[in-house]
Amino acid sequence: xxxxxxxxxxxxxxxxxxEGSLKNGGYESLKKALSMTxxxxxxxxxxxxxxxxxxxxxxxxxxxxxxxxxxDKPKYVCCNADEGEPGTFKDxxxxxxxxxxxxxxxxxxxxxxxxxxxxxxxxGEFFFGVKRLEKAxxxxxxxxxxxxxxxxxxxxxxxxxxxGAGAYICGEETALIDSIEGKRGMPRIKPPFPAIAGLxxxxxxxxxxxTLASVPFIVRNGGAAFGKIGPEKSPGMKIFNVSGHVEKPGxxxxxxxxxxxxxxxEHAGGIKGGKKLKAVIPGGASTPVLKPDEIDVKxxxxxxxxxxxxxxxxxxxVMDETSCIVKSILILARFFAHESCGxxxxxxxxxxxxxxxxxxxxxxxGQDGDIDLVYDVALNIFxxxxxxxxxxxxxxxxxxxxxxxxxxxxxxxNKTCLVAS
Amino acid sequence: xxxxAAIKKIEEVQxxxxxxxxxxxxxxxxxxxxxxxxxxxxxxxxxxVLAIPPTQVYESATFYTMYNKKPVGKYHVQVCANLxxxxxxxxxxxxxxxxxLNIKTGETSSDKKFTLSTVECLxxxxxAPMLQLNDEYHExxxxxxxxxxxxxxx
Lengths: 421, 154
Hints:
Chain A is α/β, with parallel strands linked by helices. Chain A has helices at residues 18-23, 28-34, 38-48, 60-65, 90-97, 99-113, 127-142, 173-180, 209-221, 223-227, 260-267, 301-306, 325-339, 345-362, 370-381, 389-414; strands spanning 76-81, 117-122, 158-163, 204-208, 237-244, 250-255, 277-281, 315-320. The mean pLDDT of chain A is 97. Chain B is an alpha+beta fold. Chain B has a 4-stranded mixed sheet with strand order 2-1-3-4, with helices on one face. In chain B, β3 (131-133) and β4 form a beta hairpin. In chain B, α1 (4-13) runs antiparallel to α2 (24-35), α2 (24-35) packs across α3 (40-50) and α3 (40-50) packs across α4 (54-61).
């Protein structure tokens, strides 16, 4: 069986302590990285082929290489622990059960790009995770893995925890940066990209928790060892979160490219109560829904994109035959309307109107033409905003109408739900 | 008025950042921890300590949902109503708690003991349905679990 990358030691009850972490080889990769040059570390990241685990799938090594070598402003690493994509609960596992693995990744990232500090942007509701991280940071300072002259190698680096305060949009990297700066979390227009002008206008990388927690494995075993797991263009191990109507909801770290069917029926134990599968959202709320005849898809960035959806954060939400698609999509449409930051008109107005119209359809007050109207609104959001929030809402709504138009029509014609509630 | 201890904490938290404005979010948490919600007076005091315009504190306080802009009960019951929880009965959980506490969502009980809210995904979808009671997650909810939890509070 393939060795796990980020969840290898999460079952060890003492792993969250520094002693537990060191017993299992914690910070060995940091020692190795500090004996390399920063460029050598970035080269291993590039060789690994790892793509960002937050959902966008951008190659991490390339992102790191965009940071200018010389800068008159301090450089920063931001760890995105905002984990807000509905259906996603993977970063929480790492933060609570193996915080030192994450810190090690953040320190190595800082060394590779020449940063002076790392900020962990963690969603405000993760009180327990914040405690675990703050304690772990304290322990790392005591052991000389943080602070001045780390491990005697002349590298100075600090890590701080910054709590978000309940805003999904702050998972977007430029909104996250503004939020650390104390402002409303509203995405900035790009360019300039954070690699050039990010936190406090310094060169900045923003990486997801799972991405940074993969760094120690890559440094320890070499990029090639990571790159040979799974498909060539989306390599590595990935945490899949399965929730909804399955027997064993949970986090499963598996090779990229594992078929969705295997994840649902083998790892997550199949549909709850032996019911029939109706629909699957493959990668979090922003990703278009799949029908049961599409679940042989391999779970990697390119394979899921090829069938018109996205692997996103790997958040798999399973719906059985008793689920109402209109109601489910209404919940997500309301979510996007609530979480739109309001900066771009198409998203602010469009998400609100989509939720209102779908609300009418769900409540039996839908009219002829409403489905096409929602679709038209969705099309007018897509590609017209600073950040991908509106795009996600648009794709999610259009995907549901494309696949389950009959259910929307039934609601309008019969003023009731297709499934008995 | 914020206590001296709170002001000291605000001064302390600034050290994490190169700019004072960055301390706005943690400072609002410090104020809320002490007063249960964020008053306009507290926002003004934070601005004074950080030596930034009060509008900069106000605009952030009103953007983020975790800052209570009005008083909440001693126990803030926040039930996740997003999709994964909803598929596994979040609506029933909300109705059950609403009936038990005799308040609607968004309301505070007359004895100021409970506030009931619905919230978006809290990242605990494998243990749905779930709620957050003040700082703590309570997961895999059933009627019995809810009874036990809420009846144990004084």
